[in-house]
Design goal:
The chain is mainly alpha-helical. The chain has a single domain, classed as Ferritin. The protein is built from 5 helices and no strands. Helix 1 runs antiparallel to helix 2. It is elongated, with a radius of gyration of 16 Å. It starts with 9 loop residues before the first helix and ends with a helix.
């Protein structure tokens, strides 16, 4: 492949891509968690939560693609296996099927973790004057902060 020459030095590109890989792993793990809860939620709020979780995982499906494509734009390989995602993600898998309220609490914590991971990547992007990554990550932060707020509001 040709050398990437987009005005960001190689070391910065690699560091930013590494941060994006962590964000991708967290986002994909959250996608799986949300999809699992969509399929398995029960209780008096079933319909509301089932539909809300579907909205969330649909949005996350687009997000993981955008993050992976940014990694590729920076000249690095995007991770794409469960094994690698589980090694990179700071979000733990959930055992069994929790009650609806616990699902919401878990999702709030997971969205908040994605925000924290995003903040770290944002710093790297800003230091390297990588506005494309900074914009992508800033948008992701805003989406996850809003989603966490909405989920907290249902409790």
């Amino acid at each position: 492949m040709m050398k990437v020459d987009i005005g960001i030095n190689e070391q910065d590109r690699i560091e930013i891509a590494q941060g994006l890989k962590l964000l991708l792993a967290d986002s994909y793990t959250l996608y799986l968690q949300t999809h699992n809860f969509h399929w398995n939620v029960t209780g008096p709020q079933f319909r509301e939560l089932h539909l809300m979780f579907e909205e969330h995982y649909t949005e996350l499906a687009t997000a993981v693609d955008e993050i992976a494509e940014r990694i590729r734009t920076l000249g690095e390989i995007a991770p794409g296996t469960y094994k690698v995602f589980s090694e990179l993600s700071s979000i733990s898998e959930v055992e069994g099927v929790p009650a609806a309220k616990e699902m919401i609490e878990i999702l709030v914590r997971s969205h908040e973790q994605v925000v924290k991971t995003s903040r770290e990547v944002l710093k790297l992007a800003q230091e390297a004057e990588d506005e494309s990554t900074a914009s992508l990550v800033s948008d992701r932060m805003r989406e996850h902060e809003k989603t966490a707020w909405m989920l907290r509001s249902t409790l």
